[in-house]
Amino acid sequence: MSALRLEDVTLGYDRHPAVHHLDGAVAPGALLAVVGPNGAGKSTLLKGLVGAIEPIGGRIDRGALGPRDIAYLPQAAELDRSFPIDVFDLVATGLWRRTGLFGGVGRADRERVAEAIAGVGLTGFERRAIGTLSGGQLQRALFARLLLQDASVILLDEPFAAIDAKTVEDLLALVARWHSERRTVIAVLHDMDMVRRAFPETLLLARRAVAWGPTAEALKPERLLEARAMTEAFDDAAPFCSANAA
Ligand SMILES: Nc1ncnc2c1ncn2[C@@H]1O[C@H](COP(=O)(O)OP(=O)(O)OP(=O)(O)O)[C@@H](O)[C@H]1O
Question: Per the database record, which ranges form the ABC transporter domain (predicted)?
Answer without folding.
Answer: 4-232
